[in-house]
Amino acid sequence: MVKAIGPWLESRTSRAICRRPHSHVLDVGCGEQPLRHLVETAGGEYTGFDIEQNASGSVKIIGFIDRDLPAPWPDSSATYDVILCSEVLEHVPDWHTAFRNLRTLVADDGRVVITVPFIFPIHMEPLDFFRGTSYTIEVLAKQHGFVVEELVKLGDARDVLSTVLEDVSILPKSTTIPARFASRALRLCRTVVVKSLQNAFLWRLVHVNSNTYLSNGVVLQPRRGVR
Questions:
Q1: Is the pTM of this model over 0.70?
Q2: Which of 77, 79, 72, 73 minimizes the C-alpha distance to 106?
Q3: CB atoms closer than 10 angstroms to residue 59
Q4: Tens of pLDDT, residues 107-137
Q5: In this structure, which topology does domain 6-156+211-222 adopt according to CATH?
Q6: Distance CA 121, CA 115 (A)
Q7: Span between the terminal Cα atoms of the chain, in Å
Q8: Which end of the chain is more exposed for a tag (fewer CB within 10 A), N or C?
Q9: Which part of the chain has CATH 3.40.50.150?
Q10: SS3 of 87, please?
């Protein structure tokens, strides 16, 4: 998990779980369940939800968050105190249905914790559809019965630049000496730039103003009477 995202996600997940002892937690798009240990350590009861079973066979519910919910849903008693949806929505084609289902599944006094990329390399192709701004998330949340409790921009310009550069592959076009030299020189330049971007001491000496960031961090609270 990107360093700019992980600490925020962990703190908001723990905070949401600690609101109620033995919180029922649904991890949407859980994959290999990297958040399970965090949830259980915080005292939550973990349920994984994904479109397919993982290698360890630990996904409890198989289905799509942007389609009709699988049994036992929608059942008004099958709600969750905390729903996690981290770096998942970019792989979901229908955000309106996804947000509507999140509202169905969360308890009226629960919380939904979301992270979703704004600037990030394409991944898990071809299942990579959207990059939402903070305004996208805010509008969709309000349309589907949520109040935005917190909405932050995670990762700054240096995180974006280093992430993008690390995703770049530089290879020679041929086996000629000039091509190999150019490839090696450009890779060296990239390494120097990335290391500089990651050097905390250098960044303490400058001020950077930019609207560029990596990911949206969102905590949603259900609006009572809307489901």
A1: yes
A2: 79
A3: 20
A4: 999 999 999 999 999 999 998 999 999 999 9
A5: Rossmann fold (3.40.50)
A6: 15
A7: 32
A8: N
A9: 6-156+211-222
A10: coil
